[in-house]
Amino acid sequence: MSATLRPYLNAVRATLTAALCVQNFDSQVVERHNKPEVEVRSSKELLLNPVVISRNEKERVLIEGSVNSVRVSIAIKQADEIEKLLCHKFMRFMAMRAENFSIMRRKPIEGYDISFLITNFNTEQMYKHKLVDFVISFMEEIDKEISDMKLTLNARARICAEEFLKKASLIKQDKINQRIPVKISTSLLQF
């Protein structure tokens, strides 16, 4: 872990641990309803101040708390167009499988790449410190995954380009050696 990543993750861990003090709270508007207040936003007095923890302008975490739920939104570092594309595809892949992760939202908050919604029911079924550990390990691993995918993509592109240029130079060399004019046969174009 890099020297700048550790304090960032420690700040996220401490803030998330403090925000996860959630409890069961019925709706003040509709009887027998228990909706996540951070999503519904029906009563201002039930919402905590949102906290943004930023490592740099592209890498940040938004933690929004309420009396019965916490929403964690993560913006992942994307240095160039390839990383943006890989991050978008990977997050789409994860969102399609959101039902396998009980705390993942299908659609992230605007300006962020992925969001988690942790309700009081999640904290009753799972350990709070394990939920925090999951979010922190996700933040650690996602950068590694995208970097690995970028390296693999670059290696594959290099191999494809080498093969293409090798075949193109062989064809060009054959045509020079045989002095055959380049013509496209119409019989080859018919299906």
UniProtKB/TrEMBL annotation:
Gene3D superfamilies: 3.30.1460.20. One of its GO terms (cellular component) is Arp2/3 protein complex. Its main location: cytoplasm. It is found in: Cytoplasm, Cytoskeleton. GO terms for molecular function: actin filament binding. InterPro entries: ARPC2/4 (IPR034666), ARPC4 (IPR008384). GO terms for biological process: actin filament polymerization; Arp2/3 complex-mediated actin nucleation. SUPFAM superfamilies: Arp2/3 complex subunits. Signal peptide: none annotated. Keywords: Actin-binding, Cytoplasm, Cytoskeleton. The keyword Cytoplasm applies. The keyword Cytoplasm applies. Functions as actin-binding component of the Arp2/3 complex which is involved in regulation of actin polymerization and together with an activating nucleation-promoting factor (NPF) mediates the formation of branched actin networks. Seems to contact the mother actin filament. Belongs to the ARPC4 family. This is Actin-related protein 2/3 complex subunit 4. It comes from Ramazzottius varieornatus (Water bear). The gene is RvY_00209.
